[in-house]
């Protein structure tokens, strides 16, 4: 081979790796690595304000509360776990834990059940959108405003509280109300009061007598519209086989008249129950007419007592003490249900809309009724959604504060207290023991964390 051939033969290119230069694939990897590093830096710069805000508003208060829970009320002396020990020996805190447990068990269960039932029923309503809007509207009301609304609704005075106004109205329809709750007899005027609130004649009366039963304590303007003067009835003599009498208002406007006697200007008391009693047994009953008169016919000869039963003087029915110690917690839970039912219904309704309709139609074609479809198909398919709604509500009720603090009156505040309100009361509401309050806050955090972790895992599982 000549020298010219050797020159013409091209030498092979050197290997980039042997020449100390990176390969194309290595350069691409380095370029991507640098791009990812820049993206992380940019992302961190954008996330940094949120992280600072989260740290200032969440992380720092949590860490500070944990540390503060190991110090005394003044914050100067380290007491270790004494606050946690005291927390479980304090009757108010134990009651708060018990009430919180009641909230956690009852409120989410009722809300999830109501939301499920309403979501299923709304599908069959013509104006479904308007119905959903109506139920969801309380979510736009703040807890403060809702607490004020229900504090008024639960007022024990029927003239103020709408619930007691309705209860009293229904009660009066079926049982009626007492005729003259403020009426009473004058002392020494022939009537004696028994322990059951009734009045009876001091002396025995017999058929053929006419008795006058004078009462006071009734304002003239409170008399029934059909009340008439009692004098004509009192002036009539009774037949030998009848016992007659008149119940009247022993008071004359402007003064005058004589106590214990029926004057011409004095009014009868209509609608009052009267009984004839002999040997402790009621042998006759009557109701006074417009002029206050009554009579008992066909009585056997002998001595009788004329009695005005205590029902005539019973105080008016005032309704139910919604905010009393026994009912205050259920009453507040009722207000909570009013606010959150729409939330549960909308979430469950969204899950219901995503159900495969072919499964429901196939069940109907196989002869299943609506209850069987609901129980065996709808509820099992909605189980993931129902679980998320339930756990979310559990987290929410553990933190409830506004409704309890606003609705419960001061005297029953301790009967309605939950962990959140107890934490505030101990720390700032008069207890001034922020060490114990911080321990309560840590306890509340520990109770909420498992539910939060469960919910996060459910969300991640659904995304997969």
From TrEMBL:
Gene3D superfamilies: Immunoglobulins (2.60.40.10), MetI-like (1.10.3720.10). Belongs to the binding-protein-dependent transport system permease family. Residues 97-455 form the ABC transmembrane type-1 domain. GO terms for cellular component: plasma membrane. It comes from Streptomyces dioscori. PROSITE patterns: ABC_TM1. GO terms for biological process: carbohydrate metabolic process; transmembrane transport. It is a multi-pass membrane protein. This is ABC transporter permease. It is found in: Cell membrane. Residues 1-13 have a biased composition (Basic and acidic residues). Residues 1-32 are annotated as: Disordered. It holds the Pfam family BPD_transp_1. Keywords: Cell membrane, Membrane, Transmembrane, Transmembrane helix, Transport. The chain crosses the membrane at residues 41-63, 101-121, 133-154, 335-356, 377-395, 435-456. Its main location: membrane.
């Amino acid at each position: 081979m000549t020298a010219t051939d050797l020159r013409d033969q091209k030498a092979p290119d050197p290997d980039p790796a042997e020449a100390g230069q990176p390969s194309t694939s290595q350069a691409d990897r380095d370029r991507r690595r640098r791009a990812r590093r820049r993206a992380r830096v940019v992302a961190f710069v954008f996330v940094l304000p949120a992280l600072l805000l989260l740290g200032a508003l969440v992380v720092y208060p949590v860490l500070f509360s944990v540390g503060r829970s190991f110090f005394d009320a003044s914050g100067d002396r380290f007491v270790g776990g004494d606050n946690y020990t005291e927390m479980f020996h304090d009757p108010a805190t134990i009651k708060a834990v018990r009430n919180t447990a009641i909230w956690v068990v009852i409120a989410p269960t009722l809300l999830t059940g109501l939301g499920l039932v309403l979501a299923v029923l709304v599908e069959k309503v013509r104006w479904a959108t308007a119905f959903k809007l109506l139920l969801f509207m309380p979510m736009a009301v703040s807890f403060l405003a809702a607490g004020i609304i229900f504090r008024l609704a639960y007022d024990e005075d029927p003239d103020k509280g709408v619930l007691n106004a309705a209860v009293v109205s229904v009660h009066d329809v079926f049982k009626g109300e007492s005729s003259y709750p403020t009426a009473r007899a004058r002392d020494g005027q022939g009537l004696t009061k028994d322990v059951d609130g009734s009045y009876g004649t001091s002396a025995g009366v017999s058929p053929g007598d006419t008795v006058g039963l004078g009462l006071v304590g009734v304002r003239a303007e409170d008399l029934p519209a059909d009340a008439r003067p009692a004098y004509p009835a009192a002036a009539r003599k009774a037949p030998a086989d009848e016992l007659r009498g008149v119940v009247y208002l022993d008071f004359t406007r402007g003064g005058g008249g004589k106590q214990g006697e029926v004057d011409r200007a004095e009014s009868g008391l209509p609608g009052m129950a009267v009984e004839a009693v002999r040997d402790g047994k009621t042998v006759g009953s009557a109701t006074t007419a417009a002029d206050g008169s009554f009579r008992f016919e066909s009585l056997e000869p002998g001595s009788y007592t004329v009695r005005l039963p205590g029902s005539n003087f019973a105080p008016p029915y005032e309704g139910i003490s919604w905010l009393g110690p026994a009912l205050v917690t259920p009453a507040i839970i009722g207000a909570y249900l009013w606010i959150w039912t729409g939330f549960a219904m909308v979430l469950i309704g969204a899950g219901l809309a995503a159900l495969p309709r072919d499964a429901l139609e196939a069940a109907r074609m196989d002869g299943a009724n609506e209850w069987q479809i609901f129980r065996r198909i709808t509820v099992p398919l909605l189980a993931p959604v129902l679980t998320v709604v339930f756990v979310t509500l559990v987290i929410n009720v553990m933190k409830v504060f506004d409704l309890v603090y606003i609705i419960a009156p001061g005297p029953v505040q301790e009967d309605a207290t939950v962990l959140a309100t107890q934490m505030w009361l101990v720390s700032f509401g008069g207890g001034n023991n922020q060490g114990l309050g911080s321990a309560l806050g840590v306890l509340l955090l520990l109770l909420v964390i498992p539910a939060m972790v469960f919910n996060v895992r459910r969300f991640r599982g659904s995304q997969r």
